[in-house]
Specification:
Rossmann fold, Alpha-Beta Plaits, six-stranded mixed sheet, 12 helices, alpha/beta, four-stranded antiparallel sheet, 2 domains, 29% strand
Length: 333
């Protein structure tokens, strides 16, 4: 459904010097600098897949999304959605995609929500019968009936997000781009939106590209993760593959009988590449299980101090991604 091959996007910017003299220099002899936001990016997404597209701020996610949606043109490379070039076939293409930007709305602020949907119906040229059928489905999945007659400006953030998702799905797109769809929402509303996205994907086989900083979205929604940094791919695989490959960082927490007992433990001398922190009687240790056996760590600790409680936790995806972008994990292509 989505085919990207050797995609590149380079921006040109003028470096301005401070002051009046600098402004004159920039006017008559501008200093040009080129910035590669996307570098030789390639991936494919089959029909019906939900792919998490993640990376640190400035990694190139937004630029890639804008190219895929037809807002920007690539410097070079191939980008096709359902066999169409987003830039060449703009009018036909936008009828096959839906886009939700978490911090921007496509709804008319002063109109009632149902009137907004009527306007979109005319824009997308949706027949009356299909529109009524579609609204029944979206009302059921996203629970819009409680506020569908209210002006958009009166909606809460969670209501507006559900309304925006419904607006993006009104014309039954083949591909849905979701950019931070749960940003700023409370836990209950996030769960409702995740369930709705999953239901729509399963019922209609809608291909979804999701960008988010909420890694719970990734774990609960995505079949696959595509991670980029500085415009380049650094990981492409499933959540389980990411954990299997890079989830060897374990965390052990000891609750000591006395906080002064920490003086009896010399982890840095005994073990290599270990980090620990102490808050009162609680000692939290992070280590690479491929280099340090957990039984050795437990044996050493319990032979030197008395503890009241022990907790062992495998690394979750948030910890793995955090270490990825702190450059503690070797990048793999």
């Amino acid at each position: 459904m989505i085919h990207v091959e050797n995609l590149n996007k380079t921006f040109k910017k003028c470096i301005k010097q401070p002051g009046v003299i600098g402004a004159c220099k920039s006017l008559f002899n501008p200093q040009i600098e080129f910035f590669e936001a996307v570098k030789d990016l390639s991936f494919e997404i089959p029909k019906g897949e939900i792919m998490g597209f993640i990376g640190a701020n400035g990694a190139g996610k937004s630029t890639t999304i804008k190219i895929l949606t037809g807002i920007l043109s690539p410097t070079s490379g191939i980008c096709q959605i359902n066999g169409r070039d987003p830039q060449k076939y703009r009018v036909k293409y936008v009828k096959e995609i839906g886009v939700v930007f978490g911090q921007r709305t496509q709804l008319w602020w002063d109109l009632a929500l149902q009137e907004t949907y009527s306007v979109l119906k005319e824009i997308y040229e949706i027949p009356n019968f299909e529109f009524r059928k579609r609204m029944d489905f979206l009302n059921e999945v996203l629970e819009l009936n409680d506020f569908i007659k209210d002006p958009v400006r009166t909606l809460s953030l969670g209501q507006r997000m559900r309304a925006d998702i419904a607006a993006s799905l009104l014309h039954n797109p083949k591909v849905l781009f979701l950019d931070e769809p749960t940003i700023g929402l409370d836990v209950a509303v996030k769960d409702n939106i995740r369930r709705a996205i999953t239901h729509i994907n399963q019922e209609e086989q809608t291909t979804i590209l999701l960008t988010t900083h909420d890694l719970n979205d990734i774990e609960q929604l995505c079949n696959r993760i595509f991670m980029i940094d500085k415009g380049q791919k650094i990981f492409d695989g499933s959540v389980s593959q990411l954990k299997q490959k890079f989830g060897k960082i374990h965390e052990v927490t000891f609750d000591l009988v006395s906080k002064n007992d920490i003086k009896k433990l010399d982890y840095c001398h005994k073990f290599e590449e270990i980090e620990f922190e102490q808050k009162g009687t609680i000692v939290k240790i992070k280590f690479d299980a491929s280099k340090i056996a957990i039984q050795d760590l437990l044996k050493y600790t319990l032979s030197h101090v008395s503890v009241t409680d022990i907790t062992v936790k495998n690394a979750d995806i948030e910890e793995i991604v955090r270490r990825f972008f702190r450059k503690e994990i070797i990048n793999v292509q």
